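agent: user wants the structure for Inner membrane-spanning protein YciB from Brevundimonas faecalis. delegating to structure tool.
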Amino acid sequence: MSEATETKRPQWIRQAVDFGALIAFMAAYFITRDMIKATWVLVVASLIALAVGFVLERRLAPMPLITGGFALVFGVLTIVTDDDLFVKLKLTVQNGLLAAVLLGSLPLKKYPFKALLGSAIKVTDEAWRKLTFRYGLYFLGVAILNEVFRNPAAVTAIWSALNLGTPDPNGVWTGFRGVLWIAASVFGLSQVPLIMKNMIKDEEPGPVSPDTGL
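agent: tool returned. relaying tokens verbatim.
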């Protein structure tokens, strides 16, 4: 087996691990039309995803740990209280905090992404600043949009304005999660030119740094 194949395999496996819990959650909701049952699936799938990630890499990568941890905490709160508000708030709280940390770090000239990814992506400080700013705005936008799509009154008003009939608020929010997954992938790919343009070459060739799961 070639070295290239060995390098690519963990990346594909990691993608399946990172998004497996979300896919399972969406499937569970659209099959059962029950948000609490779907949250049970989310909690179990998140635990499995974290365990598989740890077995594969012998560590818990930072971002999967953050997103998985939030999914577990808010998922358990949803199950315990029998209230789907918590699982819907997860995106707002998680992305709001990430946005606050990233955007708040800019005046201090501290770039959290560099601490997380500095061993895997070597770019100039100016590139880290731009990435921090862009991702900060992205996370803020996600938090704001989630507040709209988790609100049944807002969803009903939007559907009425667009003459789309009577919506299923839970179905709309679950669909929004799927669209957000695609948007996140597109946004991430759109940052590749910035990274490539500002890449710092090593003075001497060395082993490829392990991917962090981001």
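agent: one observation worth passing along. The radius of gyration is 19 Å.
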